[in-house]
Amino acid sequence: MNLMYRQILSKVKSSKKIKAILMFTVVLPIAAIVFGSILAKCFIIPITKKEPKQEKETVVSANTNNHIYNIYYFQSGVFTSKANAEMLKKVLKEVNVDCAVVKDKDIYRVIAGISDNNDFEDLKNKFKNLKYDYVVKEIPLNLAENSDDAELIEYIKSVKSIIECQIKLSYINNYNSDTDNLLAEINKENEILKELSIKIMNSDLDKKTIDYFKATNDIIIQNIDKYLIFMKKNQKESVLENLANEIFSIKSLYDFIGQNNI
C-alpha cells in the first residue's frame, strides 16, 4: 500500500513538474507575445494619433531643373516626445523594421527608409500587411530660388551628391566595383565639402549665418565619417540614422537660408 501511495505521489509530482515546464516554456512566452501585440496596437502605435498628425503621402513628379534636388523619406511616426519615438522604434524593431529617430526642429521623426527616387514598395507592402500607418515625404532643395550665395549652393549640392552615393551604397549587398566607385565619389565630394566649408566660414556672411552653418557642417561631416564606419560593419540601423541626421541637417540649413534671405 505504501509502495502504491509513493508511486501515485511520484506521478503527481512528475505531472506538476511537466505542467510547470510547459507553463514557463510554452504558455508564458505565447502569453507575452499576445500581450505585447495588444500593447503595441492599443497603446503604443496609437500614440501617433495624440502627437502631430502624419501628413498625407507626397507624390511628386521628377523635376528636370538642375537646381532642384529631391530626397524622400519613409516616415512611420512623428512625435513631440523622443521617448515615444524611441518606443515606436522598438516596436518596429521587433517586426524586423530598422528605424532611425531624428530630431527635426521641435519634433522627432521615426524614419524607416530614405531614397532619392521615392522607391519604397517593399516597406509600403510590409506596413500595409502589419496595418501600421506611414507617410512618404519629400525634401525639395530648390537651390536656385533659395539662395544667391554660390558657395552655399555648391555646398548643398555637394552634400546631396554624397547622400545620393550613400543611398546607393546602402542597397549594395555584396562588395563589387560599384562599391569602390561610390566610395571614391563620397571621398571626393567630402574633400570638396571641407574646402567649401572653409570658404563659407571665412566669407562675408553675417555672424549668425556663419555660426548656424558651422554647427550644421560639424553634424554633417561627423555623420559622413560615421556612415562609412557603420557601412563596413554592416550596421544598417546606424547607417540609416546617420543618413537621416545628414538629411535633416541639410534641410535645416536650407530652411535657414530661405528664411533669412541669404
Automatic annotation (TrEMBL):
Transmembrane segment boundaries: 21-40
Pfam families tied to this protein: SPOR
Source organism per UniProt: Caloramator quimbayensis
Gene Ontology molecular function terms on file: peptidoglycan binding
Top-level lineage group: Bacteria
Protein's name according to its UniProt entry: Sporulation related domain-containing protein
Signal peptide, first to last residue: none
InterPro entries to which the protein is assigned, alphabetical: SPOR-like_dom, SPOR-like_sf
Keywords (A to Z) from UniProt: Membrane, Transmembrane, Transmembrane helix
Domain SPOR, first and last residues per copy: 72-128
